[in-house]
Amino acid sequence: MRRRKRDVPTPTPAGTPAVTRALSASPALSPTASPAPTAGGRARDLIAAYGNAAVGGRLRRISERIDRESRAVYKHLGLEFEQRWVGVLIILLERQSATVGELAEGVGITQPSMSQTLRSLQAAKLVSSRPDPGDPRRRIQRLTKAGEALVNKARPVWEALIGAARELDDIGIDLVTPLERLEDELDKESILDRALRHLSAAAGKSPEGQGK
Is 33 exposed, middle or buried (0-12, 13-18, 19+ CB in 10 A)? Predict the structure, then answer.
């Protein structure tokens, strides 16, 4: 993937909102690009303009777009489906049953997030929950008959979405490798640790930090 050259920060117009003006006062947070309005007259993309400083917002936006457009595919086939259900349904289909912790580990999200996903699946009557006979503190999750039927109906959509992803790969947009590298690097050192390290270094360079 080609790296975009860093541009000189663009001046901030007087009419720009106060928050944006404040961010622009710091060279590290100044916009790195100034996208022109689209044909429809859309304002320039401020999230993209702030480059790495807004990478979280950029990833969230892409994630929301993928979810939104994927839901449209399911809806086209008359299916009420949420993209976040996919991992849970596949694991339960393969394993027959699993605990909340096992599902969270398998999908790679936190247990609170998994519990939220399971509540939506249970509300849709696609997953059932019962106490674990060996440990009443845990609950066993299983697909219901309706859940199994939905999986069979959703399979063509999953194949179509895989095909769409492969098309992007074919034109040189590798979606998976950069995400795997990002996850590996964050496992080595989290965003929190990295940001605190930079804050500490910046404090050491300031006159106040050097005087301590």
Answer: middle
- Is the CB of residue 77 less than 8 Å from the CB of residue 159? no
Q: pLDDT tens digit string along 78-122?
A: 888 888 899 999 999 999 999 999 999 999 899 999 999 999 999
Rounded CA gap, 54 and 106, in Å? 28
> In order of start, what are the domains of the chain with their CATH numbers?
71-161 (1.10.10.10)
CA 46 – CA 32 distance, rounded (Å):
10
The structure tokens listed for 195 are: 């940001």
Residue among 152, 156, 180 nearest 89 (CA): 152
How far is Cα 56 from Cα 62, in angstroms, rounded to an integer?
10
The whole-chain average pLDDT of the chain stands at 76
CB contact set of 28 (below 8 Å; sequence gap of 6+): 53
d(CA 175, CA 25): 34
* Tokens describing residue 123: 């509300």
Question: What is the C-alpha separation between 119 and 121, in angstroms, rounded?
Answer: 5
Q: What is the pLDDT of residue 202?
A: 82
92, 48 contact by CB (below 8 A)? no
- Do the beta carbons of residue 24 and residue 9 sit within 8 Å? yes
pTM: 0.58
The Cα–Cα gap between 199 and 22 comes to 18
**Nearest partner of 154 among 88, 91, 77, 72, judged by Cα:** 77
